[in-house]
Amino acid sequence: MSESLHKSALLLLGHGSTLNADSSAPTYQHAEEIRRRGIFAEVHVAFWKEEPNFRQALRQTNCTTVYAVPNFISSGYFTEQVIPRELGLSGPVTRLGHQDIFYCAPVGLDPSMTEALLRRAEQVVIASNEKIADPSKSACLFICGHGTSFNDNSTKIIHEQAAIIRARGLYADCQAVLMEQTPFVKDWRTLTDCPDVIVVPFFISDGLHSYEDIPVLLGLTHNIREKGFTNPHVEDHRRLWYATAIGTEAFIADVILAQVRQFQANHAGEVTRQNELGERVSPLEALSRFLAEKCGPWKIGEVFIRPGFDLCHLADAKADPVSLTRLETFEDLRKWILLDSAGGFRPLRAAPNLRPGWLYHASSAEDILLALDYLYPAAVANWSLTLQQELPVTAWKETAERQTGRFRIVREIDDSLIQELVSAHCQSGCLKRRLWVPAHQTLETRENEILLLCPEACNFLVGKAREKIKGSSEE
Ligand code: SF4
């Protein structure tokens, strides 16, 4: 990797989910691994459906050079429309204020994906303790993707991978199948005559689609959480194996780095202005000053920071540290904060339901910032920009106008309806102070406290707005 990356930021962009934590897990996993390798000055994540969302993605860093890599399978709706629109990108190289954003290809386009799919297919059969005597004669491998009518490119890579594998002749047949477009995965019985069938989901994570929806579409189970399924599933003397998604494989971290390398090779002439820091005070500088100037302990949301940098829940401020569960890694911290005390998923990190009973010892201001980015994503970045009077604030009307696809309908929500939604979901359900019209609140600053700020309606609220009109929740 190029020397210059040591002063650049890497931004991993994932889908995320408001319903479960599995969707964002691989993106966090690969970000941690790349951060551990020390290749970039900073490594950040951002999501479509979770915090920090795409709109806040670039605020997290002050680096003037940012490599943005979509942790998505295909070039399509998200990588060609949603991400450029939300980040404000105009092409592979975009100058935004003091930053150059280098927009790399999604990980799913890397040629190594073919081997990963084949590995998954082989492993799922081995793990079942059954054998396929000669897959080239009896087995069909289905590569399963999502499919969407919003962008024709979304399914291209699924068909390409199926064609590459088919040409190798390792299986009697290899086809692309899709959840929401033809050829439908639910039609697997008629799409092939092979007695042995393997389905590999070409998805980044074992989230809602690959873990729950596809097994139901295949007829493996009616409810995977209650009933599960066994590999192979036998039906009319045919055997069907269903594998797990490839996105959690450790080698994806290398694929992400390969996308950066490929970008540098393709845009050598444009990757020239490098590596100064912007003039803006960075989130880390703002946090370091705050910790140095204000005597501890400090507070942010429901988190209490003791001098010496122990982080715990406010409710445990006076507890004996020995009585608390010590979280040693960011992965421990991430797992702890995902669920509330009743075991429910916390789609809103700023909801006042953080579980108490834990302690995380940070070794430095940088370590505190990383921990806080798990607890309250991009909160320090937003607070730091507010101190400099540079935090962009977006009115509801503009947020609604930006929505596309199935969320376009929220444009019908007017100011009085959005106030109703704010009363129902923000006032008691979120600790952030709203800055956006028409739901803005006054800011009363408090000594020793980092304020949680809401500069625009979040995707959770946009989802609730859609629900208000459609009457049902839909990811
Ligand atoms: S819109 Fe409401 S729920 Fe969403 S982050 Fe802002 S205050 Fe919290």
Describe this structure in words.
There is one protein chain. With 475 residues, the protein is of the alpha/beta class. The protein folds into 3 domains: 1-111 and 251-279, Rossmann fold; 113-242, Rossmann fold; 392-470, Alpha-Beta Plaits (2-Layer Sandwich). It is built from 15 helices and 18 strands. The protein has helices at 25-37, 77-87, 113-127, 135-138, 156-168, 188-191, 208-218, 252-266, 283-293, 330-338, 365-375, 379-387, 396-402, 415-426, 459-470, and strands at residues 9-14, 42-47, 65-70, 93-96, 99-103, 139-145, 173-178, 196-201, 233-235, 238-242, 298-300, 303-306, 310-313, 325-326, 358-361, 433-434, 449-450, 453-454. It is globular, with a radius of gyration of 23 Å. Iron/sulfur cluster is lined by residues 348, 350, 425-426, 430, 432, 434, 454, 457-458, 460-461. Residues 348, 350, 425-426, 430, 432, 434, 454, 457-458, 460-461 line the site of iron/sulfur cluster.
What is the structure about, briefly put?
With 475 residues, the chain is of the alpha/beta class. The protein is built from 15 helices and 18 strands. 33% of the residues lie in helices and 16% in strands.
Name the features.
16% strand; Alpha-Beta Plaits; globular; 475 residues; 18 strands; binds iron/sulfur cluster; 3 domains; six-stranded mixed β-sheet; five-stranded mixed β-sheet
Q: How does the SSE layout of this entry go?
A:
Layout: E1 9-14, H1 25-37, E2 42-47, E3 65-70, H2 77-87, E4 93-96, E5 99-103, H3 113-127, H4 135-138, E6 139-145, H5 156-168, E7 173-178, H6 188-191, E8 196-201, H7 208-218, E9 233-235, E10 238-242, H8 252-266, H9 283-293, E11 298-300, E12 303-306, E13 310-313, E14 325-326, H10 330-338, E15 358-361, H11 365-375, H12 379-387, H13 396-402, H14 415-426, E16 433-434, E17 449-450, E18 453-454, H15 459-470
The structure holds iron/sulfur cluster (SF4).
